[in-house]
């Protein structure tokens, strides 16, 4: 005995705490706008029709064998086509190393490990704020981290000059973590023009651009449009890295399906880089799971299913966008004198409302609305039935 007496409990995850408290509350009007998973207008989780159809096609196939260490190769190819564009030069010249990953988190973690092994003196530049797990991922990989300015609380928009300044001042050859679209938690993305400027500054500084793309299609409803930042960096000749997740845009959360890709000089280098990525996976989990990759492969390789998927992603994005408008209109209708324009300016799953932790506490304690204390509202939890209640509650605590 005595082996583990010194082990202290790990800090509680703030999001899980929100859900626990929500479940304990028996008030009929309670709302959970904490969790970042899509819900339909009934407040229910959704399995996409294209996923149901793909599963029907897969049923009975021989899917129990091990995948290769790098995962399902057809899945990887289809995944990078989605990110980089079907006719991308880097794909035609086969200079992209791609590997199946345990969703977006796993893809980020592999990249962080690869960075530590092969650019051991480099650091990672992380936006403020960001998805909290980004900090843990690079910390666990023992990569030195710095932050760069991103969000301006005054405008509830992008701190563009701060961002550019911080990226300019970082040591040359830094890795810069960029959210490809639908920035979490702020919902604030640079414009195409701003992306071009960021790309130019990073080119000059010889920084490495790493795109975390957890929401392709989920922001605007258009997968091509949501990849615009990546396409701009490619046009400018950056050799980027990209983490893709199919959790949100295909609703495959628990399947843990994603892809890490890195653009290299040529086909030989891509193959070499892939062997090293595989070597990182081998002692951790050997090879990735079969089912999610097969679902995505089936959808993306079948024109009919792909078309259905594109419609369904657009459906999810459109519902969220319409809830943004409804929330803003209801706040205005409730008589709020504050500006709520940022609700409709921001994009993707989340609205960074600008509410203070104290206002959020009142929202929870007095109105049974559950969310994280940073004021982040998951728009996926808002429906035509509860939007007016939410708006009135927000108005009451922000008067
Ligand atoms: N990156 C960002 C910015 C996210 O918001 C998320 C999920 O919330 C992820 C990555 C990873 O999600 P998953 O590992 O489920 O794909």
Automatic annotation (TrEMBL):
Ranges where the Aminotransferase class I/classII large domain occurs: 29-394
E.C. number: 2.6.1.1
Entries under InterPro entries matching the protein: Aminotransferase_I/II_large (IPR004839), Asp_trans (IPR000796), NHTrfase_class1_PyrdxlP-BS (IPR004838), PyrdxlP-dep_Trfase (IPR015424), PyrdxlP-dep_Trfase_major (IPR015421), PyrdxlP-dep_Trfase_small (IPR015422)
Required co-factors: pyridoxal 5'-phosphate
Listed name of the protein: Aspartate aminotransferase
Catalytic class of the enzyme: transferase
Keywords: Aminotransferase, Pyridoxal phosphate, Transferase
Additional remarks: In eukaryotes there are cytoplasmic, mitochondrial and chloroplastic isozymes.
The organism of origin for this protein: Riccia sorocarpa
PANTHER family: ASPARTATE AMINOTRANSFERASE, ASPARTATE AMINOTRANSFERASE, MITOCHONDRIAL
UniProt record similarity statement: Belongs to the class-I pyridoxal-phosphate-dependent aminotransferase family.
Subunit structure: Homodimer.
GO molecular function: L-aspartate:2-oxoglutarate aminotransferase activity
Catalysed reaction, written as an equation: L-aspartate + 2-oxoglutarate = oxaloacetate + L-glutamate
């Amino acid at each position: 005995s005595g082996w583990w007496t010194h082990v202290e409990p790990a800090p509680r995850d703030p999001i899980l705490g929100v859900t626990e408290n929500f479940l304990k509350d028996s008030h009929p009007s309670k709302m959970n706008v904490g969790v970042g998973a899509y819900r339909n207008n009934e407040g229910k989780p959704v399995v996409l029709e294209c996923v149901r159809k793909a599963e029907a096609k897969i049923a009975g196939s021989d899917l129990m064998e091990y995948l290769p260490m790098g995962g399902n190769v057809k899945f990887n190819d289809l995944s990078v086509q989605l990110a980089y564009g079907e006719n991308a030069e880097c794909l035609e010249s086969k200079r992209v190393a791609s590997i199946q990953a345990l969703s977006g988190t796993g893809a980020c973690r592999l990249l962080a490990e690869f960075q530590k092994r092969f650019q051991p003196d480099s650091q990672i530049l992380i936006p403020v704020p960001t998805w909290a797990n980004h900090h843990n991922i690079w910390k666990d990989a023992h990569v030195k981290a710095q932050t760069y300015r991103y969000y301006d609380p005054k405008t509830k928009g992008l701190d563009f000059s701060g961002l550019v300044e911080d990226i300019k001042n970082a040591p040359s050859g830094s890795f810069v973590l960029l959210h490809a679209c639908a920035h979490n938690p702020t919902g604030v993305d640079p414009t195409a023009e701003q992306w071009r400027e960021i790309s130019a500054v990073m080119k000059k500084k010889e920084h490495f651009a790493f795109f975390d793309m957890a929401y392709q299609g989920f922001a605007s409803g258009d997968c091509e449009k949501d990849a615009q930042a990546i396409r701009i960096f490619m046009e400018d000749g950056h050799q980027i890295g990209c983490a893709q997740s199919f959790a949100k845009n295909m609703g495959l959360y628990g399947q843990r399906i994603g892809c890490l890709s890195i653009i290299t000089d040529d086909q030989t280098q891509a193959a070499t880089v892939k062997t090293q990525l595989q070597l990182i996976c081998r002692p951790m989990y050997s090879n990735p799971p079969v089912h999610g990759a097969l679902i995505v492969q089936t959808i993306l390789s079948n024109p009919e299913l792909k078309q259905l998927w594109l419609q369904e992603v657009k459906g999810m994005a459109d519902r969220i966008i319409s809830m943004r408008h409804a929330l803003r209109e209801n706040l205005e209708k409730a008589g709020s004198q504050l500006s709520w324009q940022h609700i409709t300016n921001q994009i993707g799953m989340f609205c960074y409302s600008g509410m203070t932790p104290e206002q959020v506490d009142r929202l929870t304690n007095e109105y049974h609305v559950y969310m994280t204390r940073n004021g982040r509202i998951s728009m996926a939890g808002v429906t035509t039935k509860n939007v007016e209640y939410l708006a009135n509650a927000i108005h009451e605590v922000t008067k």
